[in-house]
From TrEMBL:
The keyword Repeat belongs to this UniProt entry's keyword annotation: no
Organism encoding this protein: Mycolicibacterium fluoranthenivorans
Keywords: Methyltransferase, S-adenosyl-L-methionine, Transferase
GO terms for biological process, alphabetical: methylation
Task performed by this protein: Exhibits S-adenosyl-L-methionine-dependent methyltransferase activity.
A Pfam short name: LCM
EC number: 2.1.1.-
Protein name: S-adenosyl-L-methionine-dependent methyltransferase
Family, per entry: Belongs to the UPF0677 family.
InterPro entries: Ppm1/Ppm2/Tcmp (IPR007213), SAM-dependent_MTases_sf (IPR029063), SAM_mthyl_Trfase_ML2640-like (IPR011610)
Gene3D superfamilies for the chain: Vaccinia Virus protein VP39
GO molecular function annotations of the record: methyltransferase activity
Length: 300
């Protein structure tokens, strides 16, 4: 379904289903013999959501029809493994540097507040739409999972006044913080992306950190085309989510330039190099991440 300014979703529909999709990829990545991530909850969370295609994917019950389809699964599994590890390492480094306040924007089915070893006294805020937050909290409780930090949830749309909601939940703008925007920006219109970084900047004292990714100005277009191919390949097996409709297309500000101009020391690496850092092969062909960069930044 096409996007609108006030659309909402659960984990089986619209943008919410993308959180289930990437959790399925994390489950597959976790099960690999040379795994670079360990998300012990991902498979159970995907099964709990109950979208048949993703459940079969984590259960290993999908028939892979041809090499193209196999390459599609390989790409998403490796991409999510590398991305997850990159953000894991970012939060670990922030903790090592003494930051005790983390904000995971668009947390989806991410389980970092449960599976990372956070320094004592760390508070982790998770922000996502209300149905997404509620489902994950209940499912993790049902799995008997316990947070490894103080976990606070902020159930709100990121197009609304989330800074007030975050502060009301206890976030301290006077203390350094570590922020992640992972798998989020393409689901926000270009102006909302800028607003998000303005709001983060306003809440970040010197020494605060931020990790995100930028895919180039036309990412909505290129990933949309790749997504359409995937629907073609997997349609017969029940994959019927048209991802291409969920991304906001059109030119957007370059995140590196935008943050640099707002008092952040920005460090970016190409996705190709980050794949190499973690021992994964970056596929050159038909790869919508060709122009992607992984970004970390520290506030002056
Ligand atoms: N960061 C998580 C991960 O990597 O597993 C989830 C990524 S998933 C691809 C996209 C997430 O962004 C979903 O959980 C969705 O609910 C969230 N999201 C997108 N737009 C949002 C908005 N306007 N407000 C709140 N959450 C949003």
């Amino acid at each position: 379904m096409a996007r609108s300014e006030t659309d909402s979703w659960d984990l089986a529909s619209s943008v919410g289903a993308t959180a289930t999709m990437v959790a399925a990829a994390r489950a597959r990545a976790t099960a690999e013999p040379d795994a670079i991530i360990d998300d012990p909850y991902a498979a159970d969370l995907v099964r709990a959501v109950g979208v048949e295609f993703f459940t079969r994917l984590v259960n290993g019950d999908i028939e892979i029809p041809d090499d193209e389809a196999a390459a599609g699964i390989r790409l998403i599994t490796d991409t999510m493994a590398v991305r997850t590890r990159f953000f894991d390492d970012f939060f670990i480094a922030a903790g090592d540097a003494g930051v005790r306040q983390a904000v995971i924007l668009a947390s989806g089915l991410d389980t970092r507040p449960y599976r990372l070893h956070w320094p004592a006294g760390t508070v982790v805020y998770e922000i996502d739409q209300p149905d997404v937050i509620a489902f994950k909290t209940q499912s993790m409780d049902a799995l008997g999972a316990r947070p490894s930090a103080q976990r606070r949830t902020v159930a709100i749309d990121l197009r609304e006044d989330w800074p007030s909601a975050l502060t009301a939940a206890g976030f301290d703008p006077a203390a350094p913080s570590a922020w992640s925007a992972e798998g989020l920006l393409m689901y926000l219109p270009p102006d909302a992306q800028d607003r998000l970084f303005d709001e983060i900047t306003a809440l970040s004292v010197s020494g605060s950190r931020l990790a995100t990714e930028y895919h180039g100005g036309d990412f909505g277009q290129s990933i949309g085309e790749r997504a359409k191919e995937m629907v073609g390949q997997w349609g017969a097996q029940g994959f019927d989510i048209d991802l291409s409709e969920l991304f906001y297309k059109g030119e957007r500000n370059d995140v590196v330039d935008y943050l640099s101009a707002r008092g952040w020391q920005v460090h970016s690496r190409s996705r190709r190099d980050v794949f190499a850092d973690y021992g994964r092969q970056f596929p050159e062909r038909a790869n919508p991440l060709q122009h992607s960069v992984s970004i970390t930044a520290i506030r002056d």
